[in-house]
Amino acid sequence: MTFTGDERAQSVQVGAVLLFGVLIIAFSSYQAFAVPEQNREVEFNHNQQVQTQLQDLRNAIISVPGQPSRQAVSVQLGTRYPSRLVATNPGPPSGLLYTDGTTNESQNLTVRNAEAITPETADYWDGATPRHYNTGAIAYKPEYNVYGEAPETVYEHSLVYNQFREGNITLSEQAMVDGRDITLVALNGSLSRSASDSVTVDVKPTSQSSRTVRVTNATETSNVSVSFLSRLPASEWRALLDDEVDPNPGNKSNNRYIANVIEAEGPGSLYNVTIVFERGVNYRLKMAKAGVGTKVTAENDAYLTTVDDNEISVQQGGDGEIVLEVRDAYNNPVSGVTVNGSVEGSNTGSLTPDTESSDSDGRVKFVYNASQSTATGTYTVQFSLDEIDGSFVGETPENVSIPVTVTEANQGSGGGSGNSGLIYNEDAVALDSDGGPDGGVQFSVTNEVGDTITITTVAIDAVDENIDFLSDSYRNYRDPAPQENELYIEADTDGYTDFNGGTDIPRVIDVDNQERDLAGPNPVMSDGSIATFHLFEFERFGVQTGMNGESVTITVTYELSSGGTDSKMFTVTPGGANTSAQPNADFTITSNGGESNGKWDFDASQSSDPQGDIAAYEWDLDGDGIFDDANGQTLEKRRVSSGTKVALRVVDAEGNANTVRKEVP
């Protein structure tokens, strides 16, 4: 047998070689095309994850105004590819997380033309001095092997967005402007981390509180504005702020207060964006400073301001508490700062203590003492962050001057009416709930009716007719509470009414008005109990106004548990009325007998005033507690139903007021 010419073994070898070649080609194709595509998907998914983590970081930063403790946010800078048996992977991709401009003092956020409503705070927020705050951005720049078109994700000025070569895509809403609320959080510190693993970013509140400062435009021709450097042009910021831009500038009823968003040239590739706000509006400015990484700088004291009344009244032999607050440039409290105090002149009273250190809330408390021998009059109490000497100037940011009036012992405050029924306790004070002027009024009444009563309505009528609006400073999603609703009555059973956006006054408020979203039950007072009324906050010409020394007539209508309805009228004056200067209201009711046809004459000529300068006679002829029915010393032939409680309010040239009510026969 011979095998000459047999080629079967060569055929097998060739087949093996061809199969191996196919495998090599398949593996090469897998390595060249499938592996990169799979790795690109890994990188894309990682980028989506980082974008979510940057939004978490943004939320931690913008929550600093209400967050006293630091927050930690984890950011996964890189990722890992899946292990492969035959194919190979490139090195793991990484990313760079870095701050930009946060240590460059020339890169600022600037507030201009903002003047504080509170006088002492206005020493710092004077409207003429631009206030600059260094801030910048924090960004994530990926370093992927395959996903080359990945964006840079940036946080700046409450906003997170993706920055592509072709344009930008926002990932969050802006949180700087919400109606009249302006919230500014500066970013401080230095951070630069490049890695494949995750890093933890600590967000440290370096200037923080929930305080707000009410500001408005400093002059009739200026606008409150906020300027900042941004990678986004003004056109994109205007689109982001579209819901806040007023399409009808000057329309105060649509809750939109941005007049314009403009742009100027900035350094490098940055835009200088300015948000211009409308004039004649009282804005609530809240500020904070968040630190990340290293080189985070602390904030020192910037100014001293009042917390309660800007002036107090003390009887001889009495005392009064004065509370001040040390604040930094962000309007937030600074602890551990020494405040010095003194009383100007001799025999003008004293302070206890004369030096105090600010507590954790930045506050210092002093007590002004008037001895029995202290002369009556008005004196100036001086406070300063520096030593007090002959060069003291009360209008500088570090100084505060408060007038104190010393009155004769046992001098009443006036404003009451009667000593039975529902008794006003002569304790009205002006308070503030949000860092503005003392626009709220708090007072109490005692039930001496001899029965349990249920309060049904409260009529509010300010003596100054220009005080024409009542609006609390909080949104309706908060739970009802004293000083957070237009009307809140603390009694055995509390009652309250909240008006979304406030309410015009004078007004009769139905406490349990079921048509309102936020209206509680009618307050109940047992016999002998005390109820505290909170009215927050009064406005004059659309701007919150201090109520110290301003008089408001209150009429409380109530039902008795034994049956029947009654009411009580009194005038409250926060800080106390000067009874020696207060007018006396009185009038007569007469008719022409049977020929009067139900019409009556009212004569207030027997009213009197110590200075003889009664300026107004105001009448409530329908008994609702609102003095808008007539004016004048005498009224003739007015048709008023029998049994109606007609009221007269007389006001002198200094604004002192007194009321009296009489029932028509």
TrEMBL record:
UniProt keyword terms in alphabetical order: Membrane, Transmembrane, Transmembrane helix
Domain PKD: 581-659
Family matches, as SUPFAM superfamilies: Invasin/intimin cell-adhesion fragments (SSF49373), PKD domain (SSF49299)
InterPro entries: Ig-like_fold (IPR013783), Invasin/intimin_cell_adhesion (IPR008964), PKD_dom (IPR000601), PKD_dom_sf (IPR035986)
Residue ranges, compositional bias (Polar residues): 338-355
Region feature Disordered, mapped onto this chain: 338-360, 590-611
Transmembrane segments: 12-33
This protein's name: PKD domain-containing protein
